[in-house]
Amino acid sequence: MIQRVCKLDDLESFACEIRDIAKDCGVILLRGDLASGKTTFVQSFAKVLGLKADVTSPTFSVQNRYGENLYHYDIYQNGIDGFLSSGLLEELEKEGYHLIEWGDEKLEAVLKSYFIDYIVIDIDKQSDKHRVYKVKKCIN
Q1: Which domain holds residue 70?
Q2: Residues 13-52: pLDDT tens digits?
Q3: Which pLDDT score, from 0 to 100, does residue 41 have?
Q4: How many CA atoms lie within 13 A of 88 on its CB side?
Q5: Is this structure's pTM higher than 0.85?
Q6: In this structure, what CATH number is given to the domain that contains residue 77?
Q7: With contact defined as beta carbons under 8 Å apart, do 119 and 21 qualify?
Q8: Is residue 128 classed as helix, strand or coil in its secondary structure?
């Protein structure tokens, strides 16, 4: 497990580190309380990929795609059942990075049952400017 304490100014460097770790694993589950910085992390990740897209939370659309290789999901509204019934599990087969906000243990169980490798990033908001990121890579 990797743990980092980052200020917002350091987030792109951390996102670059995650991109390098994820080279063989394109599914990244982002966990944290409301306003912990999940979407902010995706914004930094997009910058690291060289994308100039306006990254916003896909709370109501469930999925946003940026460029050719960045997929951003938010399963808070519909949970894992909504994610599965809408066919989004098959999207994870597409080449690229798949960052999923609110990916919980139920989603982890589904990923394991389909032998999909993934990374979990737990985000703990320490202050308005500092976050603790706990990262674990799960190989199935």
Answers
A1: 2-138
A2: 999 999 999 986 799 999 999 989 999 999 999 999 999 8
A3: 95
A4: 26
A5: yes
A6: 3.40.50.300
A7: yes
A8: coil
